[in-house]
Design goal:
The complex is a heterodimer of chains A (about 160) and B (about 625). Chain A is an alpha+beta fold and about 160 residues long. Chain A contains 7 helices and 4 strands, in the order H-H-H-H-E-H-H-E-E-E-H. The chains are: A alpha+beta (about 160), B alpha/beta (about 625).
Chain lengths: ~160, ~625
């Protein structure tokens, strides 16, 4: 799902690294610790660039290629940084039959990016998600933590305007 | 707590509080309880703001000691959220607006008169207020798995205990052998609610006996609810997390396991938070940990978060994922009962399956088996969504007909549209057309009509939905989510998707329909796991029930429902057109031009669309004020 290109150089801070090392220390002896470590690492850095994967590999002894394999398998892990605002359009069945596909298309058109990408100014990233469970509000999209429901294509402009 | 007696003391102290919310006639420390839904649906539509406002207003009116605010799980009628219920009256306020809260507090909580104009219309009958159980949405429901959802505060273990919580675990540990427990579950006829329908007791029996000298066994809970449009499991976890912990402990005792894992979607932040709280409280209360109820049984549970991979709902893939790997399935046999998580005997049940267990232990196998049909016992929770008036969560006895669910409970199709099909089983299931409206819903009947129970998503579609487009939608999903391990699924689903894409673009042939069927046969019979084995189902079932729609796309190059863009053309009704030119201005490809002649009685000449240039973006239609443009 995440096909976004990024040219942003890695800007991890020593504080972030210290935090990550602490997480690794706490968890590395648990069975199946890799996923929880990656989830925490993504919380710390916002994404999982190769530099972060290397830190995890060096400190857990898990081969880098295995870590990369896991990171690229799961939709939630991102190799690239995300925009300031992440717009997620629900493409679950209940939203889809009520027209969320059209809303997703409209957003791609308005933002000039494809799903999974980030606008060049780093403001918005756009993604499709599978059912956030607010089917009573279908069709639904979220912008970071904000939820917008019972949408039509015409609502797209006013939602984007709120974050401009 | 170390004994059943201690548990009973807590229960008795809480009983009045929770009973007030089920039959109103109970002794509570408070005059009134105001229940506000804190499930995902209502939270999204603003229930946290309502709770804050309520707290302010109660304080301003000096009611803080008299009225208790309870943040509960889902009430079910998500369509009408945010929902607030006031007990002992049982007044059901729907689509509550923050602005309405001060009046509700003043008139209802201070003066004792429910504010009728804010109540759910169906409960207001002239001067009377009807009970919720008499409304069409709730009347035919029977809550077993959801019995505590919307009744208790899920973040308070004492409220769960007040509803007989952890008594089943106490009963099992102090009076039953593991064999008794397994026999009870077998006798109840409970089958897996995740979709497969495998008898739960059988699973437990295998895991208990197949490797007699295993040093470690595991109990897992599948809370990776991946079917898009299904939210039953999430609602149970959000509304009643302890029931899952209790049931997993019972399962642990039955099979001889000490450790449990709940694999839950990270996309369910509220469920994850409440599970964490519940696990912490259960450990503090001695319901998880060492020597539970003073016996030599010890059991603990950890959470593992999924990371957005649908295939991880498949049992072997889920276990591979908990182990910290790419979530790819492995061949069976060996089955998890023999070699599961970390190569040890493991059982995996779904959230809703677990939610039934404590009730079966307390009320007996006969009680559970008295509900439902011959081969499908008990109830089933469905997430009702799509083109239906009452979107929400419903729990019905097995054997209820689709007609009752859609027309009575669901309130029918909105906007006077015609029902076309109901989709069950998500990307693994199929569509049920109107002709099967009166078939009693159970595992075997749904399979016999070419669909399946699935985990419980039930999406209703009307005449505006194109069935070819829906089949393509599900295939797109499986193509995206196929893990890539086995060839039939990885490549086969992609080829099917390409054919469907061709058909929706008007480039399909009749041979394509045969090719779809042939591909489907090979993918179903050769894929490694359930994802691939069921991926062709949405195509097969729509081909069977709605072949005429496929033929219309292929032969007539038309989409009867008006969904597939490439088969539509936009036309301007010249008699309605006012000649404003907004359409032409907004057309990105200059396909619209003004006619040269001004017709009689018109100020300006109307516009026309050159269909050879049109890219069918719809911008003209969106901008036409007199609504003179239509799709044909």
């Amino acid at each position: 799902m995440s096909s976004a290109k990024s040219t942003v150089p890695f800007k991890g801070t020593p504080e972030q690294e210290a935090q990550l090392l602490q997480v690794i220390e706490e968890k590395k002896n648990d069975k199946g610790a890799l996923m929880p470590i990656l989830q925490k690492a993504q919380d710390i850095y916002g994404y999982l660039p190769i530099e972060v994967q290397k830190i995890i590999s060096d400190n857990t002894g898990i081969p880098l290629e295995k870590i990369y394999g896991v990171v690229t398998f799961y939709a939630q892990f991102s190799l690239y940084p995300k925009g300031e605002y992440t717009i997620s359009v629900c493409l679950g069945t209940a939203c889809y039959v009520k027209g969320s596909g059209d809303i997703y298309e409209k957003l791609q058109e308005k933002l000039g990016i494809a799903g999974g990408e980030c606008t060049p100014d780093g403001k918005f990233s756009l993604e499709a998600c599978r059912c956030i469970g607010a089917c009573g509000l279908a069709p639904v999209l979220t912008v970071n933590e904000d939820v917008f429901g019972r949408l039509t294509v015409d609502d797209v402009d006013s939602i984007l305007a709120k974050y401009a | 707590m170390k004994t059943l007696e201690e548990l009973k003391v807590v229960r008795e102290s809480m009983e009045g509080e929770v009973a007030l919310r089920t039959h109103g006639n109970a002794s509570s420390k408070y005059e009134r309880h105001v229940l506000v839904c804190g499930g995902t649906g209502c939270t999204s539509s603003g229930s946290p703001k309502i709770i804050t406002k309520l707290e302010e207003e109660l304080a301003a009116n000096g009611l803080t000691d008299k009225v208790q605010i309870v943040k509960t799980g889902c009430f079910g009628l998500c369509e009408r959220g945010p929902i607030m219920i006031v007990y002992p009256e049982g007044s059901f306020y729907s689509r509550v607006d923050v602005e309405e809260v001060p009046r509700i507090v003043k008139e209802h909580l201070v003066d004792g008169n429910p504010v009728k104009e804010f109540l759910y219309e169906e409960t207001v009958d002239g001067d009377d207020i009807k009970s919720l159980d008499d409304t069409a949405f709730y009347k035919k429901q029977h809550r077993v798995a959801l019995r505590n959802c919307g009744v208790i505060n899920p973040e308070n273990i004492d409220e769960y205990i007040g509803r007989q919580g952890y008594e089943a675990l106490g009963k099992v540990l102090t009076t039953m052998t593991p064999e008794d427990v397994i026999q009870t579950i077998l006798d109840s006829g409970l089958r897996g609610r995740g979709g497969g329908g495998f008898p739960t007791g059988m699973k437990w029996k295998l895991a208990r006996n197949i490797v007699p000298d295993a040093d470690m066994k595991y109990v897992c809970c599948n809370a990776d609810e991946g079917d898009p449009g299904a939210f039953m499991d999430r609602s149970v976890l959000e509304g009643d997390p302890h029931v899952v912990l209790e049931a997993m402990s019972i399962a642990g005792y039955a099979i001889g396991a000490k450790q449990g894992y709940i694999y839950v979607r990270a996309e369910y932040p509220i469920a994850v938070e409440r599970l964490n709280i519940a696990i912490k409280q259960a450990r503090e209360a001695g319901m998880l940990g060492k020597n539970i109820f003073g016996t030599d049984f010890s059991f603990d549970i950890d959470l593992r978060l999924g990371a957005g991979a649908f295939v991880c709902g498949e049992e072997t893939a889920l276990m591979t994922s908990i182990e910290g790997n790419r979530g790819e399935p492995r061949p069976r046999p060996p089955f998890p009962a023999e070699k599961g998580l970390f190569q040890k005997p493991t059982i995996l049940n779904n959230v809703e399956t677990y939610a039934n267990i404590p009730q079966i232990i307390l009320n007996g196998a006969e009680w559970f088996a008295s509900m439902g049909t011959e081969k499908s016992k008990g109830t089933k929770v469905f997430a009702l969504g799509g083109k239906i008036k009452n979107t929400g969560l419903v729990e019905i006895p097995m054997g209820t007909t689709l007609r009752e669910v859609i027309e009575e409970i669901g309130g029918g199709i909105p906007n006077g549209k015609k029902f076309k099909a109901a989709q069950t089983g998500g990307p693994s299931g199929g569509c049920i057309p109107a002709e099967h409206f009166d078939i009693p819903i159970d595992y075997d009947n749904l399979i016999s009509i070419g669909s399946m129970m699935g985990s419980g998503g039930l999406i209703v579609m009307d005449e505006d939905n194109c069935m070819v487009d829906i089949a393509k939608f599900f295939l797109e999903f499986t193509v995206d989510e196929s893990c890539g391990k086995c060839t039939p699924c990885r490549i086969g689903t992609k080829r099917m998707h390409e054919i469907l894409d061709r058909i929706t673009k008007g480039k399909g042939t009749l041979e394509d329909l045969d090719k779809l069927e042939e591909l489907a046969y090979h993918i179903k019979s050769n894929s490694l796991c359930g994802l691939g084995q069921t991926a062709p189902n949405p195509v097969l079932s729509t081909l069977r029930c709605f072949r005429d729609e496929y033929v219309a796309h292929v032969v007539d190059k038309k989409c009867p429902a008006g969904v597939c863009k490439d088969l539509l053309s936009f036309v301007i009704n010249t008699s309605k057109c006012v000649g404003c030119g907004l359409c032409a201005k907004n057309c990105p490809v200059n396909a619209i031009s003004q006619m040269s002649e001004v017709p009689e009685g018109k100020k300006r000449a109307p516009y026309v669309i050159d269909t050879s240039k049109c890219v069918k973006c719809g911008a003209c239609m969106d901008n036409c004020r007199p609504k003179a443009i239509s799709k044909v």
